Amino acid sequence: MTIHVTVWNENVHETLGTPASIASDYPEGIHGAIAAGLRKYLDDDAVIRTATLQDPEHGLTHAVLDETDVLLWWGHKAHGEVSDEIVERVRQRVLSGMGLLVLHSGHFSKIFKQLMGTTCSLKWRNDGERELVWTVAPSHEIASGIPHPINIPHQEMYGEFFDVPAPDEVVFISSFEGGEVFRSGVTYQRGAGRIFYFSPGDQDYPVYHQDEIQRVLANGVRWAVPKVEAALPAVTNPARDWFLESTES
Amino acid sequence: MTIHVTVWNENVHETLGTPASIASDYPEGIHGAIAAGLRKYLDDDAVIRTATLQDPEHGLTHAVLDETDVLLWWGHKAHGEVSDEIVERVRQRVLSGMGLLVLHSGHFSKIFKQLMGTTCSLKWRNDGERELVWTVAPSHEIASGIPHPINIPHQEMYGEFFDVPAPDEVVFISSFEGGEVFRSGVTYQRGAGRIFYFSPGDQDYPVYHQDEIQRVLANGVRWAVPKVEAALPAVTNPARDWFLESTES
Amino acid sequence: MTIHVTVWNENVHETLGTPASIASDYPEGIHGAIAAGLRKYLDDDAVIRTATLQDPEHGLTHAVLDETDVLLWWGHKAHGEVSDEIVERVRQRVLSGMGLLVLHSGHFSKIFKQLMGTTCSLKWRNDGERELVWTVAPSHEIASGIPHPINIPHQEMYGEFFDVPAPDEVVFISSFEGGEVFRSGVTYQRGAGRIFYFSPGDQDYPVYHQDEIQRVLANGVRWAVPKVEAALPAVTNPARDWFLESTES
Amino acid sequence: MTIHVTVWNENVHETLGTPASIASDYPEGIHGAIAAGLRKYLDDDAVIRTATLQDPEHGLTHAVLDETDVLLWWGHKAHGEVSDEIVERVRQRVLSGMGLLVLHSGHFSKIFKQLMGTTCSLKWRNDGERELVWTVAPSHEIASGIPHPINIPHQEMYGEFFDVPAPDEVVFISSFEGGEVFRSGVTYQRGAGRIFYFSPGDQDYPVYHQDEIQRVLANGVRWAVPKVEAALPAVTNPARDWFLESTES
């Protein structure tokens, strides 16, 4: 089955050129780097496109979403500039079965906060600390082929308490040089859709070029692809014994 | 410790007198019946007040919420008339530690949908069917003293699929005469707050006068009382080794 | 990837000819019917074998288990006759990554009780009641293509409380004509292995010939296939900074 | 309600005098230190006794267990010397509602392994590293009054992968100076009983004298006290409509 992926990035750090290092770290943008990593590890027939805040309808038209099995979301500085209408459109798609990977500072995106219902707040410190990413769900497909631990030489610290619902599955827990810990890879099912939040990756560090991180994202995409024919869960008012005639699928 | 409870009801069926039976089933309103049930089963020093949609600020002023450990929410016809500002105020309180019991058709209230992130849709049929409520978490305090099953002679059917996040705990599962099933008692922790959704209870049936239902609600209130000193989870940006000086509590 | 499946059956009802109907309901044995159902819905290259209590080492030699991705387990009358050594052998395999489907009265098998740690007790009544199997995890691959509900005309009743650990995922909940409910399709991950318990299916009823049941079992097998290279989780005593040299995979 | 607690210790390090420091660190034995900590933080009327491997029936007679609401378990060198009969007796009590706190190296005790069903293996290194214990479930009563993080100056390292079932609740996650992480405070409900595993505490370090650790254990005891009238879950074979006559409680 061909997987259709859309990598969304606010693309603001890149446009502004801040930090200065982003031009060399991410010459194709963070979305470009993420897309390139997916191309390495997904099957050859995967269709991977990118979309950004600056595109018409942020690049997330009905036509694009119709052809998207899994959407990846990277945002940081411009969460407030994302249109509420587009956010609701994406949310309906997720609840209808589209997979969603929310990356790093996307924890504060409108789409993630609305799907979680919580503040999604956390501790942070940008001090170039080593992050170690430990697998705590070794039978999970997202952990397939991933070293234990992943060693990220320099990364922003994200620390607990991370105000999200208790995850359906905790796949990865990170520690940082300064001693903080973070549930860095967690899954949720909402409606008919699958959500994977993964924290490693930042505009200041070339983390998305790291091989193991690319593998995690490709595994996450494969896991998040809809496994069922699905639709938005709906209210129905069936008569007694309706299921003797037919059933839902 | 004295428990402070606020029972909120939209109070619209009562005002309109629909169904006609509500005048005799709930002469003090649904909120009045729920409050009376809590008075039977909570400690004598519990402080139980009621509030309705028609009150100024829907009766949910900052002053009232400051004195509320647990809020119960009943709504059905008038979800859309609840002010977004009040809903956000309540949500912040829940994330800060206030307990919340969402009852029956409150599954479609703004506050519940925003805390869940999903459509909260379900099947329903108002045919006066028998509902049996089975305990599937026998060590849970909400199940304390509750018969297995509770037999509700006549009740509206709520059936799966119920589009909510996988609960932290499934305490009760119901079956209905027509064969449908429903996760009728489920818990969630969101931020520092505890949420219990319990479906039995309807404007058409005197379910809130049933002894076992009153016990469940009293147990639910006790469970939802904040167990910790809490505040809204916040973003912080601590320096390295900040915890050597002090810690958070 | 070729899936290797072993269907294990105690094969005692068949041998004894009790109930009398089993000769016509399951002429190839319950294991034969289950295997035939899997052949319909798994890929053509799946390798499906059967094994029974009466075989040397119950048919579960090291050689057989070495070639088994997923083991299905049906037992009822002869749990006590299964060798402790073989049970421990199977348990080690599951913890090392082999998938396990435990069926119906297998809830009382040694292997399931040891993996769960609980009594695994439940209510039962053999009265030929209609069972309706409702999906409560619509994004789960085990629910793919499964009608909502499955209608099983006649089946033994299994009712709550089912004394198992809170499942990692509740996929199906059943109701019975008599009003009882049962968490009839539940998943667990133990060590590196995946376990799916599915209750429909009995020596007295031809349930394993029902199309939807066969689909569920095939979906369950696909879900339980190991998704990672795995080994039995082991104790290790690594030196500081061991992960700078190498990591585990 | 008066809480009855039994603190069990294998009491072997103390008897052998290894490590030499144990005589000064734990002059009353590890069980004595734990009991003293509980006396500080539980209500005055709590009844706290101790029992050891060397006592008749390991101090866990039917009479003692009859009077025990919560049992704490510390073992390390002598897991194999604990009688299988006593282990099964304790397991039946837990499934019948008795609370159980399993401490540190108790992860490898017979009772914990049988209740979990997994290997319970982990990484370890005894290098006197700093352990930081972070709260990830701030609304949980076990976290009440506990600083975030707890700073333990010197402690044995326990690291992931910790081969236990996905916990019902992850309350604490630890990091160690060397970079490893560990789910150090986790809860399970099994049968009618509540289980809390808490890893900090070792024969080589005076951790059980640390105020915050004592508070966690006292909170854990309060959480694990049975909240319902309970009995061992049993198999029953009820007739149709049995619940019209009476119900279970």
TrEMBL record, chains A, B, C, D:
Residues annotated as domain ThuA-like? 35-224
Q: Please, which domain of life does this record's source organism belong to?
A: Bacteria
Q: Which Gene3D superfamilies match?
A: 3.40.50.880
Name of the protein this chain belongs to: Trehalose utilization protein ThuA
Which lineage ranks, top first, belong to the organism behind this chain? Bacteria, Bacillati, Actinomycetota, Actinomycetes, Micrococcales
